[in-house]
Amino acid sequence: MTAQEDASYWYQDRQTRARLVLEALRRYRDAELAMRERARTSTGLGDNDLSAMRYLLQQDRAGRQVTPAELAEHLGLTRPSVTVMLDRLSRAGYLRRRRAPHDRRSMILVPREPEDPGIHEHLVDLRSGVARRAAELDRNDAAIVVRFLHDMRAALDDGVTPMPDRFWFGADDDAATAVLSGLREYRASEQRMRQRTRDSMRMGDNDLHALRYLLKGQRQGTCINAADLASELAMKSSSVTAMLDRLSASGHVIREPHPSDRRSVAIIPTPAADTEVRATLGTMHGRMIAVPGALDEHAAVVVERFLADITDAIALVGADR
Fold first, then answer.
1. What is the pTM of this model?
2. InterPro entries, from UniProt (predicted)?
3. N vs C: which end of the chain shows fewer Cβ within 10 Å?
4. SS3 string of 75-139?
5. CA distance 39 to 134
């Protein structure tokens, strides 16, 4: 499902500009997910490993020292989990630990600059490319982007307080850093939202993606079979069959003879599935559409162009490997 098609399931008959901004945000998210998959394949590191190394390299280049406790806080992980991760990264040669000079009970994490060009690209060049786009924003436009990202977080996460109506950077504020922080915090809020959705509906991301794809097809009068789902989700046919067995057992889909292909079976979402998806996600999507809907024309263009620029930067990382 393309970003535009997926957005149309929720944003039908909404403001065109608001929909375009949300589609740009979705394309950015999809590009980052694809980049992370390339990074995992290229480096053999998991998402948390990559996030840790990017942060450590960034702080090291800025002349700041990082302790395991500070890394745990940055990543939102428990200290035992970070200890296991650091042991793994240390054995692989990505970092070393040394005693803090003023507190012998504490450790400082010292990252090693990656020698492999592919790993360097994922750990260093990615942030540099996005940072360049952020630095190209003037202070007023950066404030627009930061506020948009913050308010989108508030739409996703009830615990985030919306920014004041008048928010601008002072002369001493680092606008580009604030933009990068806003992107990171938005991604964290989105991950928390996805976890809440999985818990609420008791299903994984692929199951939910499949349901939304089926519901969109039903709305458009398109008959979808298992092969269509396998292509959409980039899953093996055996995995799709197992997923459909789960969704059928839970009452979310039914299988019927395909109306135009007697060798195939149509996958039909049930009315209960539509009701549950809308009840779980509909209110949140209403809050999400309200954020870009409140932007004036200039602000909407600034946000849409910035998201398009960083999507292009992310799409280039590791794409030729």
1. 0.67
2. HTH_MarR-typ (IPR000835), MarR/SlyA-like (IPR039422), WH-like_DNA-bd_sf (IPR036388), WH_DNA-bd_sf (IPR036390)
3. C
4. HCCCHHHHHHHHHHHHHCCCEEEEEECCEEEEEEEEECCCCCHHHHHHHHHHHHHHHHHHHCCCH
5. 22
Task: Say yes or no: domain 47-111 is CATH 1.10.390.10.
Answer: no
Look at residue 319 in the predicted model and tell me its pLDDT. Answer: 55
Separation between Cα atoms, residue 151 and residue 142, nearest integer Å: 14
Nearest CA among 174, 176, 173, 195 for reference residue 184: 176
- Distance, in Å, from the CA atom of 61 to the CA atom of 101, rounded to the nearest integer, reads 19
Q: Please say if the pLDDT value at position 166 is more than 80.
A: no
How far apart are the C-alpha atoms of 186 and 250, rounded to whole Å?
32
For 271-296, what is each residue's pLDDT tens digit? 999 898 888 877 787 888 888 988 99
- Let me know: does 223 contact 266? Beta carbons within 8 Å: yes
251-to-195, 198, 255, 276 alpha-carbon distances in Å? 22, 17, 11, 11
pLDDT confidence of residue 181: 83
Cβ neighbour number for residue 236 with a 10 Å cutoff? 10
CA distance 191 to 197: 10
Q: Where are the domains of the chain?
A: 47-111
The tokens for 139 are 């202070």
Residues contacting 125, CB < 8 A, separation 6+: 317
Residue located via tokens 């970070």 = 82
pLDDT in tens, 50-73: 888 888 888 888 889 999 999 998
Question: What is the model's pLDDT at position 26?
Answer: 86
Question: At 180, is the pLDDT very low, low, confident or very high (cuts 50, 70, 90)?
Answer: confident
Q: How far is CA 177 from CA 131, 136, 181, 222, 307, in A?
A: 8, 12, 6, 45, 16
What single DSSP character describes residue 163? P
Q: Are strands 103-111 and 95-100 parallel, antiparallel or unpaired?
A: antiparallel
